[in-house]
Amino acid sequence: MTAIPLETLVTVFGGSGFLGRHVVRALAKLGYRVRVAVRRPELAGFLQPQGRVGQIHAVQANVRHPASVEAAAREADVVINLVGILFERGRQTFDAVQSTGAETVALAAASVGARMIQVSAIGADESAPSRYARSKALGEKLVLSAAPSAVILRPSVLFGPEDDFFNKFAAIARFSPALPLVGGGHTRFQPIFAGDVASAIVAAIEGHAKDGEIYEVGGPEVYSFKELMRFMLATVGRQRLLIPIPFALAKLQAGLLQLMPKPLLTPDQVELLRDDAVVSDEAKREGRTLEALGVEPLAMATVVPSYLWRFRKTGQFKGVTASNR
User: If you count DSSP H runs as helices and E runs as strands, how many of each does the chain have, helices first?
Assistant: First the structure.
């Protein structure tokens, strides 16, 4: 990779989130100055030790408020948008955050001549049954309209120490005698380490991605949801029933679960599970994959045990860490 001038400034919207932490760490390690744009900058102080003094600083920004976005993008050489939500609450709707919000970031990037990188999701489709997937697709369209040279990355489900996937189901398995398999657990995923997505973003910044292209990024292996639950249970040393639940029944149950402060499942997430989240054959043929960006993905089995050990029923599991990635 090319040498990076120390004065290069990257604004990362959503930089304090799960993926954002990996992105900020990767950028700081390479010498970028990083401006972390978040709704509550006072909670992003934990990022500063990842870089040298003054290299990382947080500013207030909300993608629903254009003025704050424009201020956060000012003088930036690169703008990265990681902002996304898994469920809606009040004014934080899919369209406001993932469609209009993404456009707002892209417009701000274009106004200062910054390179734009948008993180979307595999399954983004304007005709999808899920509103989440539709809003992601519309966001991509609006980003490319505002900043035609933008690079868009669509990851499959992310894993890593603070993930909301394996950690959530391992926690449920602590007290629940059974785990549900929505739609029978046949939905396929291509889990990818968050640190590898961060590496893909760095590759895009450094010119290894084609302008205006959408890259689909997944890990080295494809698993069904049922296989992922079996892997998780084996890792934490627990035996639980895996109960298939039809989509219609799951959607009814999700109608109640969505009322929780942090829902375990929402009706829209049930709709999202109707489609596989794997890298498409088209993306493979056209070279729009993680490997095309020069990133060799880590296997799930080399990372996940390193942080699920605390959920084990007995003993202590010593896994391989990913701290150097």
Answer: 12, 13
